Amino acid sequence: MNLIAEQIETYKSIIETEGDTLLVNMGPQHPSTHGVLRLVLKLKGEEVVKIEPVIGYLHRGFEKLSENLTYIQIVPLTDRMDYLASITNELAYVLTIEKALKIEVPKKAIYLRVLTAELQRIVSHLVWLGTFGLDLGGALGGGSTLFLYCFREREIILDLFEEFSGARMMYNFNQIGGLRYQPPLDFFSKLKATLPKLKQAFAEYEEMLQENYVFKVRTKNIGVLEVSLAQRMGASGPVLRGSGLAYDIRKAYPYSGYENFEFEIPIGENGDCFDRAKVRILEMKQSLRIIQQALKGMPEGEVAIRPPVRVPTAVKVPAGETYMHIEAPRGDLGVFLVSDGTEKPYRLKWRAPSFSNLAVLPFISNGHKVADVMAILGSLDPVFGEVDR
Amino acid sequence: MSWMKDTFELTGSFLSAFKVTWKNLWRKPVTISYPDQKRVLSERQRATFALLTDPKTGEEKCTGCYICQNICPALVIKMEKEIINERGYAKTFYLDLSGCIFCELCVQCCPQDAIVMVRHWEIAEIKKENLVLDKKRLMENQKYPFSTIIGSKIREMQAVPKPPTASS
Amino acid sequence: MNTLFYSLVLLAGILLVVAYLTWLERKFAGRMQSRIGPQRVGKPWGLLQPIADGAKLLVKEDIIPQATDKTAYNLAPIVVILATTLVFVTIPLGKSVVLVDLNVGVLFILAISSLALIGIFMAGWGSANKYAILSAMRGVNQLISYEIPLVLACLVPVILAGSMKLSSIVLAQSKVWFIFYPFLGQIAFLIFLVSALAEANRIPFDITEAESELIAGYTVEYSGMKFAFLWLAEYIHLLAVSLVGSILFLGGWNGPWLPSGLWLALKTLLLFLLILWIRWSLVRIRLDQILALSWKVLFPLSLATLILAGGWSFIF
């Protein structure tokens, strides 16, 4: 009797201090945590009182592993970080090494890099759009319809990549000093035939989602991210631009010949889920613009300044520190290289955009409903290969 | 009367979504029913590996130089060398496909063009140990069509492309 | 004896039709999503797929988690499927093809079908799972709020026909179907459709299932045949909704040339396809928005429709 009374007292004190909350442990195995994120949710009814993301379930020790591999061997491994946008990872790494070695790559390689990076951005955003539909609409419903439409269009681009490099996701296709090979002879004509299809598909997505009242209701004023908070947390990419700050590394610190291309930086107004979604959809259209320009101005010539390496120790970077960052589909992807003059890096640090973007989550999802947490998480678009590295 | 406006907007947006799905209802499915139909693979397809023999002399091309073992980032290649008649051979050669990341660096590095990737991707096995390819199985894989990317060819592939008649 | 035979045939018929409705849904969704849908089991168009599904669910291990409230957990699927199947007792499937043509047919259908709510809450509570209990709470919220517009919308045909008997309602539509009554019919049908969708937990109102946050809601801890019961109940409910909708608003078996049963089947199928089309084109709405839609839009609208219907039947 006494024991029960005691228990009631403790429960009462818990309820008084914490409120009548329910602790829900979402993940690491959960259909819409985009991989292996664990969310500790404290719920009051349907409302989220506190949310705490727990990461590290996909940690593969990439940075430490890089210290034991030579510069050439690291290139294929970078594909595995942000596995939805492999080429941008390769590009960031390869550009870092080229900056450290102070080498210039041929013009055709630059153009092809821009072309493939933008195609990759479309691919990555298509995956995001599809999974965002799943987050909002569930696996059995309109969400999955949108998901499959997105993957249908993604497949077309992946087929092109497969023709180019022989692989569909993990390309290993940039090499230090250029590209590993020329595109196949009919690559450009096939790509040109693809572009109108993509344009039509984007229009369809907009009709299905962007202008859709249900979609607006689910995303407007949900997860509002202030610009100041976004800057403080180091958010970048569409998450930052959705908040209204036109910061794009392609414009701010042009790399790999992006200064030669004309494009706009789409920005949002309120920084809610809707704006982030809008920015990504508009970005896909801008990517199409860049691709068209790259196709038009595609020069002839070699794609690499040096033959493909034949020995693992072929590249030696002079001692020193190098930092290079590029605009990956998820934001500011930075590589910091400390080399000691040998064939292996002394330290290779990656600044993963997903990680900083995910850090925003606890600050913007309080007070929303459970269903909104999934929408917010989806709109941040983290990839856990990159968050945990 | 904002809810009236909302209701009308709601109906309109339903209709726009219905239009898209209706349009797609009459499109041809993009599914490839796998065992009956198969995709056309690209010429550079990276799938499984093969060790080659010289078609003229019938000798193994591999000289057991350890370069592929050294460059493999995933450390899946293990080999031993033996020397017969002043020429190196791979006495044993193991390639663990379960750990392979299909980066093609071994193909790129091979000075003899001995290891290539073949366009045969149905390599699933029930037992994991069956994924470790030994020398015999790698030699058997020669029967499949090769990927066009071969060590010495990559240099050519980086050059300005020739018209299709010249390269066959 | 005749009644027993008829009810057995009815039960078997419902199960068979529902099984093939799942096949239809999968095929339809497949084509909508540029896929093919089921095609392997039963060579032309995967026609044996529902039977394979049923066999698979029957032989599946029945897992009962340790912490469950056994009584509630085991009873819930039965309650749910009972409540949804009992509705068919009074639904006529053609001219004079009915088990019991109750005087209070509409009332009976509404009363019995809302019993499923108890089963859903039992499933959610008995599962001893946080996702399940959240889903059950959502379900109760949603079903109670949508009961009122649904009843009010169903009352419109009742007022127009002057009877709660389903066969008399159909008879009253022999000249003009109720959906063709200007404004009145369309609005009442729309309210009926929306609230019936909400009652059946279909997208855009399927927040009880909500696999993006609650995984599978109240069915999350069920496996094997118990899961199949809960899942079948959903489809039986849908079939009932389509049938009742076509009887109340689309004129039932009234129609030229074709035999009466075929007309009813055709209308039911059309209504079912419309529901499928809605499901595979829209995303889910949040709980508070669903409740707001019910109380702020549908409830006043249905009251207004009811008054309009009263006026109509008074004048004409």
Describe the structure.
The complex is a heterotrimer of chains A (389), B (168) and C (316). Chain A is α+β, with helices and mostly antiparallel strands. Helix content of chain A is 51%, strand content 13%. Chain A has two domains: 53 residues, no CATH class; 327 residues, Cytochrome-c3 Hydrogenase, chain B (Orthogonal Bundle), CATH 1.10.645.10. Chain A is globular, with a radius of gyration of 23 Å. Chain B is elongated and about 90 Å long. The longest helix of chain B has 24 residues. Chain C folds into two domains: 59 residues; 253 residues, no CATH class. Chain C is 67% helix and 0% strand. Chain C is built from twelve helices and no strands. Chain C is globular, with a radius of gyration of 20 Å. The N and C termini of chain C lie far apart (44 Å). In chain C, 51% of the residues are buried. Chains in contact: A-B, A-C, B-C. The interface between A and B is large, with 49 and 44 residues.
Spell out the key features of this protein:
A: 389 residues; alpha+beta; Cytochrome-c3 Hydrogenase, chain B; 2 domains; 3-stranded antiparallel sheet; 16 helices; C: 316 residues; mainly alpha; 12 helices; 0% strand; globular
Write the layout of secondary structure elements.
The complex is a heterotrimer of chains A (389), B (168) and C (316).
Chain A lengths: L1 H17 L3 E5 L11 E7 L2 E8 L7 H5 L4 H8 L7 H16 L5 H31 L4 H24 L8 E2 L2 E2 L7 H24 L2 H7 L7 H6 L5 H5 L6 H4 L20 H24 L23 E9 L2 E9 L5 E7 L1 H6 L2 H4 L5 H11 L3 H5 L1
Antiparallel strand pairs in A: 1-2, 2-3, 4-5, 6-7, 7-8
Helix pairs in contact in A: 3-4, 4-5, 5-6, 5-12, 5-15, 6-7, 7-12, 12-15
Chain B lengths: L1 H24 L22 E4 L15 H5 L5 E8 L2 E10 L8 H5 L5 E4 L13 E2 L1 H6 L12 H6 L10
Chain C lengths: L1 H31 L16 H11 L10 H17 L18 H9 L2 H11 L3 H32 L4 H7 L11 H16 L11 H4 L9 H25 L11 H20 L7 H29 L1
Helix pairs in contact in C: 1-2, 1-10, 2-10, 3-5, 3-10, 5-6, 6-7, 6-8, 6-12, 8-12, 10-11
